[in-house]
Amino acid sequence: MDFKPAPPTRLRLRLTATAESIVRSGHPWVFSDSVQEANRPGQAGELAVIFDRKDKFLAVGLFDPDSPIRVRILHVGKPQTIDGAWWQAHLAQALARRAGLFDATTTGYRLLHGESDGWPGLVLDRYDSTLVLKLYTAAWLPRLAEMRTLIQTHIPCERILLRLSRNIQAFAEKGFHHHDGQILHGAPPEGAVIFSENGVRFEADVLRGQKTGFFLDQRENRQAVEALSRGRRVLNAFSFSGGFSVYAARGGAKSVTDLDISAHALESAKRNFALNTKSPAIAACRHETVQADAFKWIEADPAKFELIVLDPPSLAKRATEREGAIRAYERLNALGIQKLAREGILVAGSCSAHVSALEFFEAVRRAALKSGRKFAELKTLLHPPDHPAGFKEAEYLKVIYLKFSI
User: What's the pTM?
Assistant: First the structure.
């Protein structure tokens, strides 16, 4: 689909009765099969005004003709003009929600978190003086220059970098000449960007890394692991770039083993340890890396650990994979429990939005009960405050902590 200037007449939509009620209740998505009537075909990124059955204004959102999520809602209620002043106020509201969350020891966090912050399909992360803007819908592409100027004006930064979801990369290149990893403002970074999190230094591969370059959403869980690691042998499975491991080392772990199938990720973990050798505890901790399939290695290797972090990639990328993912989580954590030494701690995480927190926690608890070992549940954690979850589909992150006495 080629981008063309939007027609002069406003795009007007009417929805099914069910969808109308869902939008009125605050849900930010309108699916394609919920659109009952449109006054004309719509184009990517234009504003779609939704009217209710009484022909009264209901909501306004960004239109995306090629996505199953046809409209991403910006505003519900009384009519408002979506102009430069509105966007500026909208940005200020999101930034105000983060005021006071972080001190000078943390320079990496999320500034805009998609739908839950009122910026549907868009996230903005800070890595020190670098901002990474990631788009998950083509609806933002016609507004990219406006958003770049807005961000650059109100958030001091050295550079702004663009990341694009895979499903919109071809359209972005063809219709707008934008590509994943494009520099929107400033000079390209010389290698990885270094930032701080609670005084721990990390590198972020902002150009090619997963998400926007780092898993900022696990900050609170990394802190929790640090507090539990003193004197323990720690296994960090699906370790990626070793975030949990560096915190465990700072917390006084005897040793840390990073386990990941990616050699690239393990090299990043080594560099993250090297960034923090001024910390006596980190310098003293023995750090090992193992490149292997985590499921197979955990099952076959005889080594025992006193703290195990199991934080795999999403095991259910679509709703049809939900049941299989629940079984896989139970099996994985059963294997992890077998590798725990006496008085061991299991930290089990899931980032699968299609598996609810209750379903995941119950799967881990079943694995613990079937092990026959005595255990206590220490706590569960969900989303950190800079990654709010404002509706059901946004609830992806959940972590449970279990301590085994035998």
Answer: 0.94
